[in-house]
């Protein structure tokens, strides 16, 4: 059986994989006769064949039927290719090959939730999605003043999978007006306010050191920590310890956790506090008559030491309205 070695341009070369996989299926090349790799892997392999030979695709068979797959399979592969497991290419091609064969194998590859290949593919995609979510949550930007005087917000992150470029769209939508760059060991992305630029991987030393704003963030984190609600197991599940060395606030977790029990006991023993005086100009909602329309609001009262009435809309009303983008009533 003739073997075929396919060398893709990079680890997430979806167009290259799609073209090669289609040609191999139409040439009736079974999965066990195909070896998949990337150019970076080939450069480190002393026994790798010549690059030209590895890019040569077989001609389609004369009786090769048109290849059609469901859109959800294409979407699955677009996420699966971001996984770091080198066997992902072979898995994707094996599923594609089975779908092209028709019959029971095709039905199982398309629909059977207990099919081994389908289960493995979906498990790997869930891992990629979790990694994307963690990147959304654990990226920490630090401002850097560039030679032209503009501020660039830089962050260092270490993903489990090849998600950096694919995940850039989230940060573009969220920080459209901010110039930022995210450095990872696999790739780097930079947004200049108008266009996204991609580059090679970086090192942790390329990221900026802590600054004064980070100290302010740590002060805020320390003050919002609630010792009575500490759940270490749940915290480590949502914020795995492998991310801690890149999170500034993680340096406080050990100290805050060790003193949580003592602080909780002091909170219980402390005397009840007296509510603060109501701010002049804010009134509690008036009672509504049973079965009738609400009473008319009380007229605005002047605040002590002021010359005019207080506004009819309080900050407590304006804040939710601003958050929803609607005008306050």
UniProtKB/TrEMBL annotation:
Bias-annotated ranges (Low complexity): 280-295, 303-329
Domain DUF4130, residue spans: 87-249
Annotated stretches, region: Disordered: 276-329
InterPro entries: DNA_repair_put, DUF4130
Stored NCBIfam families: SAM_7_link_chp (TIGR03915)
Protein name: TIGR03915 family putative DNA repair protein
Native source species: Acidovorax facilis
